[in-house]
Amino acid sequence: xxxxxxxxxxxxxxxxxxxxxxxxxxxxxxxxxxxxxxxxxxxxxxxxxxxxxxxxxxxxxxxxxxxxxxxxxxx
Length: 75
Description:
This protein has 75 residues and is mostly helical. It has three helices and no strands. The protein has helices at residues 7-12, 22-31, 51-72.
């Protein structure tokens, strides 16, 4: 097929998936604790990733957190 994306993503046209944070946010909400998630994309949904993809995603994530901390003056 022209589209190699898994069937669920062809049906709803999602570009991202994230379920691992759902439990964290659910519990944080139940306890009244503010929560934040900063994520970076390591690969296109439905396509295999490489070690380089993970390294690039980790570096981008670290840069985003450093920028956020600096802007919040929260060091």
